[in-house]
Design a protein that fits this description.
The protein has 607 residues and is α/β, with parallel strands linked by helices. Helix content is 33%, strand content 17%. The strands form three sheets. The chain has an eleven-stranded parallel beta sheet. The active site is at residue 427.
Length: 607
């Protein structure tokens, strides 16, 4: 991991000279990777795209080679840019051309998938192709969003947010394409559709990876510029967190956005009548709607204001879909054990894992409080998702996710879970989001007789993806029914689903349900050298690391490194979690002697 290593002082000086002299991307990449000199004729603003295009083809070729230098798939990069770039040397335009090339490849794959689906006779494969089309559309959306954002930055001081957004969106595009291929597992195709799609998406996935490499190089260079001596100047973020809501007085700062204040206020029961939500769902007819899905039909498309849906106590047996146009939706229930959304779609009965979710969230800036999400299919039905989250900057507070295999699908983007309970058997938290869990409880359930239990299965495919499963200040324990079989159906912290799987468990309580080895292989040596698994300052009977597996991917980190995996650092949580009013600790919690930290631990013990 690049940010776990301190760069040489000489590199810092070089980068500073580059930025001051005005090279944007080409100069940075060249100076960092191929040692090119500095052209003093560029604009001082490193995000300016007002450079004159050169008519010299050799200049364009040099620019393309420089911009492709940090990528893993240089041949595809050179080929795609050389074909469409003409004589331009503008790095902004070159990056956009790269995004367009990736989108074009996905469009071509979509056309081919339509033809394959018409010819396909196997129902599972046909459904996989249908799933693929949805995921490819999402992948294109992420690339288009990145394309539109490049060059729009006006305030250089916000470059970290700007580039992090790009990295998250490009990473999501890669994950959507990979999820398309995952849909063909365990299918019997009459047209070899799975292999055909793998071939069709090969180039687009490589081009998407190249885009992520280019953007990551910018981030690395500019971060180094702002930290010329990280060993001396890096500091942990403030430990000052927000009050634990629901324990003590509920004080709402004036600067909270109106919708968030409404959500938190109506959660205090008697105040609901005085602070009406935008929609009320009640099975008994006492609300505006009887089902959640009908209520969602009234959410304004791409609305800027928060849309609050209060879901009264009851069990709602329905498939809920919060699509991409439903942004800023907030759902609040009467408690995770009182307001429950349930379903039983599962893999054994013919549904691809991606589509088994009882609730699927795609609309950005989603928030849920006091709701239970469940898939009741049972362990014999294998993959059965209770909640799938693909929304960016999604928050879940005081919720529960209950199931068996694949309970919570943290699919893509940035996600924060606080005071939640997640239960299951195999890979019951999985996916490729940047997902952080604070003050949560993970409950291992009794599996089938021949099964082991695994808490996490993180799915990072590319080493530059800004994704991970991070469990902080939480508890890993088990359901009482599991305890009699814990030495037969053994439980583990996680296993590497994809090659660069990354999971961090820190400052948490690990009960004696977890085996001393800690981690389990996926298949043979797959991912054992390239994964990133670490445990930092955990407590409990199974927190002792002396008998842990010794794969190359098992890392030992310091507190300074651990701080990089906290919400404030990892996905700039101060910019979106803090305003929600949800309890939030931006940094490490070790040695945190505050009332909030003590209260949180006692709450966990009560679960």
């Amino acid at each position: 991991m690049a940010y776990l290593e301190d760069a040489e002082v000489t590199s810092k000086r070089r980068i500073a000279i580059i930025v001051v002299s005005g090279f944007f991307l080409v100069s940075m990449v060249v100076a960092l990777t191929v040692g090119a000199g500095i052209d003093k004729g560029f604009h001082l603003n490193p995000f300016s795209d007002k450079r004159g295009s050169s008519t010299d083809k050799s200049a364009s070729t040099k620019a393309i080679k420089a911009i492709c230098q940090p990528t893993d798939y240089k041949q595809e990069c050179l080929s795609s840019l050389t074909t469409a770039a003409g004589n331009t040397t503008d790095p902004i335009q070159l990056i956009k051309i790269g995004f367009q090339a990736a989108m074009k490849q996905i469009y071509e794959a979509t056309k081919k998938s339509n033809l394959l689906q018409k010819l396909e006779k196997d129902p599972r494969t046909s459904m996989a192709l249908d799933t693929c089309k949805e995921l490819m559309e999402l992948a294109v959306d992420e690339l288009r969003q990145s394309f539109n954002r490049v060059g729009d930055i006006e305030n250089f001081s916000k470059y970290k947010t700007f580039i992090m957004d790009l990295k998250v969106w490009l990473s999501a595009s890669i994950t959507y394409q990979e999820s398309c291929l995952d849909a063909f597992e365990n299918t019997t195709s009459s047209t070899d559709a799975g292999e055909e799609m793998k071939t069709l998406l090969k180039t687009s996935m490589r081009l998407s990876s190249n885009g992520l490499a280019m953007v990551s190089q910018i981030f690395s260079a500019l971060t180094d510029l702002n930290n010329p001596n990280p060993s001396r100047h890096r500091r942990l973020l403030s430990f000052d967190g927000l009050p634990i809501l629901g324990h003590g007085d509920l004080e709402l700062p004036e600067w909270y956005e109106a919708g968030v204040r409404k959500l938190l206020t109506i959660s205090t029961a008697p105040a609901r009548k005085a602070n009406k939500p935008d929609a009320v769902v009640a099975k008994d007819g006492s609300g505006s709607y009887k089902t959640i899905s009908v209520a969602l039909e009234h959410v304004p498309k791409y609305g800027n204001a928060s849309f609050v849906i209060y879901i009264k106590e009851g069990v709602y047996n329905e498939s809920v879909r919060v699509n991409r146009s439903m942004i800023n939706v907030m759902m609040i229930g009467d408690g995770a054990n009182k307001t429950r959304i349930t379903g039983n779609h599962n893999f054994v009965d013919g549904t691809p894992t991606y589509r088994t979710a009882t609730v699927a969230i795609h609309g950005d800036h989603f928030m849920a409080m006091d709701i239970g999400f469940e898939n009741s299919a049972g362990p014999e039905k294998h993959q059965a998702v209770a909640l799938r989250v693909s929304a960016d900057e999604a928050i879940f507070y005081k919720c529960s996710m209950d199931g068996y295999q694949d309970t919570l699908y943290t699919h893509t983007h940035r996600q924060f879970y606080c005071n939640c309970t997640i239960s299951g058997t195999i890979d019951f938290v999985f996916g490729d989001a940047a997902a952080i869990f604070q003050n949560c409880t993970f409950v291992v359930r009794k599996p089938l007789p021949d099964q082991s239990c695994i808490v996490t299965a993180q799915g990072r495919k590319e080493r530059r993806q800004p994704s991970a499963i991070i469990i902080q200040n939480s508890t890993i324990t088990a359901d009482p029914d599991y305890l009699p079989v814990k030495n037969v159906n053994k439980a583990y912290l996680g296993r590497p689903w994809k090659e660069y799987s990354r999971t961090i468990i820190m400052e948490s309580y690990i009960d004696d349900v977890i085996q001393p080895e800690g981690w389990l292989p996926w298949a043979g040596q797959w991912g054992l050298r390239t994964c990133f698994y670490t445990e930092f300052r955990n407590t409990g009977p199974a927190a002792n690391k002396s008998r842990r597996v010794t794969w190359q991917g098992i890392k030992q980190i310091t507190q300074r490194h651990a701080a990089q995996f906290t919400p404030g650092k990892f996905f700039r949580g101060d910019e979106w979690i803090k305003l929600s009013g949800v309890p939030y600790i931006p940094g490490v919690t070790t040695n945190r002697q505050s009332k909030n930290a003590t209260t949180t631990r006692s709450v966990l013990r009560g679960f």
